[in-house]
Amino acid sequence: MDLSLLVEGFGTALTPQNLLFAAIGVILGTAIGVLPGIGPAMAVALLLPMTFGLDATSAFIMFAGIYYGGMFGGSTTSILLNTPGESASVVTAIEGNPMAKRGRGAQALAAAAIGNFVGGMIGTLALVLLAPTVARFAVDLGAADYFAVMVLAFIAVTSVLGRSRLRGVASLLLGLTIGLVGLDEMTGQSRLTFGSLHLSDGIDIVIVAVGLFAVGESLWVAAHLRHRHDRPIPVGQPWLGRADLRRTWKPWLRGPLIGFPFGAIPAGGAEIPTFLSYVTEKRLSRRRDDWGKGAIEGVAGPESTASASAAGTLVTMLTLGLPTTAVAAVMLAAFRQYGIQPGPLLFQNEAGLVWALIASLFVGLVLLLVINLPLAPLWAKLLHIPRPYLYAGILFFASVGAYAVGGEVLDLLLLFVIGLLGFAMRRFGLPVLPAIIGVILGPAAEQNMRRALQISDGDLVGLVSSPFAVVVYVVVAVILAWPLLRRVVRSRTPDSPDREHADA
């Protein structure tokens, strides 16, 4: 890396005009990320036609602000309303929303904002220093490796969330079934389309995520409004005390170690690493009783991971022209709009643009923290809006977001059918996250499994044809065996006192 190029990039990004575009991007990204169903990918897509009059550098600086702003904005409604604005903030709701219900919504938002800042800074530094190495590693992974990573996600998500593994598996199967809808990419056969041409392209993940979370949560709240007195939830002070900082600084630093590598490989964007971060922090925590009731580590770790994953996503997009998330795909289209082809020669042919974009990531993260941390109490005041009005608004924006996906009335019908499914899952105690993971990763896991088997002529050994895949399956085996091992250890531990008492 030539440090002088990065310095020149800062010189470009810190001009008043580009600072303005970065601030606009951060504010728009946060505001749009807050709205259920309208995440950063849709924000960039909607703003793409508006940038025709801008030069490429200014446009991409604004897109970078939207990207990071959307990542943080999605966590806001996850924490305050249990309705993620985009899929990467799904895990944040698990501990963030209970924190808000306990009157610590502002602390959760502060932990998320600082986590985004720390994770984004470390991830962007890794982007600057390690992009070529990570890109080479991603190129070397084969279909069997990707399938192994996705199996790890499926096993982990059904083993940790919820009180019952059976319910986790049932939720995962629902998600995998929804992911089957559409045309088989390898054979062209229709699956679960019921003769509808509109379903041939499958059900968009935005509709599934918004239906299960926003609509399902709204229906669940509406069904219980009569049975409880709806009192405003206290918010608390918008800063972190010493006890909170002691619990969050390690998750903030661990998050990028998980998020950045996963962001750089095509394995589902930030969904897998945020969940793995949650699992890791839960395993390492000394306060097991707090988990599920509002453990601040469960907010700090996944948010830092998501931000670092966003930086990792840009590695393969810039160096290989390979988009690993929806936002990266839209940004790739934006590059082509300006006649620029991302790839190995991008850093040579468009050095000024690339280093200005990377420098703007640092600038955008600072702006994100400066703008959003003081606004934590303002966002937390959403809790004081009467529930009927608040969730009516959520249903409205969810419907707008779902309709904007394809402009079809059928999308709205699918939204509310999936919303009823989300309501039923809450009614019978099925966790929602496994279903979302199944929808997102199911099709990709199927394709990678079939490609690996084709390469090996149907021999199952083809699924463990690399050292990386073997290591991942060992981790899967440990996760599956851990409850049994823990039970054996616990059964042996009380024996020694009993024997001592008997001997006495």
TrEMBL record:
Keywords: Membrane, Transmembrane, Transmembrane helix
Residue ranges of the TM segments: 20-48, 108-131, 143-161, 166-183, 203-223, 314-335, 355-376, 388-406, 412-440, 460-485
Any single Pfam family the record assigns to this protein: TctA
InterPro entries found in the cross-reference section: DUF112_TM (IPR002823)
Domain DUF112 positions: 19-437
Source superkingdom: Bacteria
PANTHER family on file: TRICARBOXYLIC TRANSPORT PROTEIN
Identification of the protein by name: Putative tricarboxylic transport membrane protein
